[in-house]
Amino acid sequence: QVQPVESGGGLVQAGGSLRLSCAASRSIFTIYSMAWYRQAPGRQRDLVADISTGGATNYADSVKGRFTISRDNAKNLVYLQMNRLKPEDTAVYYCNTRYRQLGWGQGTQVTVSS
Fold it and tell me: N or C: the chain end with fewer CB closer than 10 Å?
């Protein structure tokens, strides 16, 4: 099963910013809406944001106004720009289609210190 590859995580202080990237195969990228998910320790994997092939976006209430999802169709990349980060944003972040149709990649760890 095809797996996306996530990158860009790290350790940042509260109020800081990070940009995550996700690479996916073109055959997947041109067909499906893509999404970012996150999973904190002991919690379920939740949808953070999604973006359609045409660029329409949706966000979880907890990240609205702080995070921005975008896609580069020419490069088969999906981005998640995260601003004004909070300690509660700490999690492993994953990329997948909107309806979780791919295998899960390794994810990328985001840690926000207070």
Answer: N
Instruction: Give the per-residue pLDDT at 1.
Output: 59
Strand order of the β-sheet with 77-82 is 5-7, 18-23, 77-82, 67-72
Task: Check: CB of residue 37 under 8 Å from CB of residue 25.
Answer: no
What is the rounded average pLDDT of the residues 9-33?
A: 93
Q: Where are the beta strands (DSSP E) in 8-107?
A: 10-13, 18-23, 34-39, 46-51, 57-59, 67-72, 77-82, 91-97
Would you state the pLDDT for residue 35? 97
pLDDT at 28: 83
Residue 33 and residue 23 in contact, taking contact as beta carbons nearer than 8 Å:
no
How far, rounded to the nearest angstrom, does the alpha carbon of residue 105 sit from its chain's CA centroid?
Answer: 12
Phi, psi of 67 (to 5 degrees): -110, 150
The tens digit of pLDDT for each residue in 68-93 reads: 999 998 899 999 999 999 999 999 99
